[in-house]
Amino acid sequence: MLIVANWKSYVEKRDEAKKLLALSKRLSAKSRRTKIVLAPSFAHLGVLAPGNRSKVKFAAQDLSTTTVGPATGEVSGATLRNLGAEYVIIGHSERRAIGETDTVIAEKAKRAVANGLIPILCIGEKERDADAHYLLTLKKQLHAVFEPLAPRDRLRVIVAYEPVWAIGKHAGDALASSDLREMVLYIRKALSEYLPGKSAKVAPVIYGGSVEPSNIRGLAGGSDIDGFLVGHASVDPVPFAALVKALG
Ligand code: PGA
User: How far is 207 from 113, CA to CA, in rounded Å?
Assistant: First the structure.
C-alpha cells in the first residue's frame, strides 16, 4: 500500500516538517506493507529530500511545464529530480480550481516522465449526478493525459481518484467503500484504452478525499485500491501514525 502525504500548504515551519519526516521514517521502518511518500512544499522538499536514504520517498506537489531558462517562479522537473523527488502530484483539484487545464496537466505529465518522476495524476468529479455523467468527467481527464503519452510512459502513471466533493472534510463525507470498489474498476476499465489489457487490470489507483484513521481500513478492504492520497490527516502526527498503522 502506498500512502502519499499531501502536506499542501499546511506545514509552514521547518521543524514541523523535520518532525513529520522523522515520524515517517519510524513508521516505515516498522511497516512491512506500507510505503510512505511525503509531498511537502517545494521549499521543504529542498530541506528534507537531499541525501535522503530512508525508505520514505518524496513527491513534489506540482511541477512546471517549463524547462531550464527564463521562467520566473517556476520549478522544473529536473530541479525536483535533482533534489531527490521521485514522484510528482499533477492535476490536483486545488490547482485545477485556479485554472489549470487538462492541456497543461498533460504537458506536466510529459515533463514528469521526461525527468524520471512518477506522475500521480489526480482526477475527480466536482459532484455526482443521478445519470452518472460524472463518469465522463473522469474519462475526459484520463484521456487528456494518457492519450498523448508514449505507451511506455503511460505505464508509469499512478491515478489518484479524488472526488472533489470529498476533499478536506471528515471521514463521514468520504466516498463509501463499496463505491470505491466500483470506481477502481471503472478507472481500470477506462485505462484499458491506453494500456495493454493486463497492465490496465493492475494499473495503480489510489484514493484521496477525507481519508482518516477511522475510515482507512474500510476503504482499503475489498476495494482493490493500491493506496491513499492523504491531505489534512497527514500533517498531524497522531492521525498520521494511526493511518499508517491501520494499514499494517
Ligand atoms: P484531504 O485532502 O485528505 O484533506 O481530504 C486530500 C487531497 O486533497 O489530496
Answer: 22
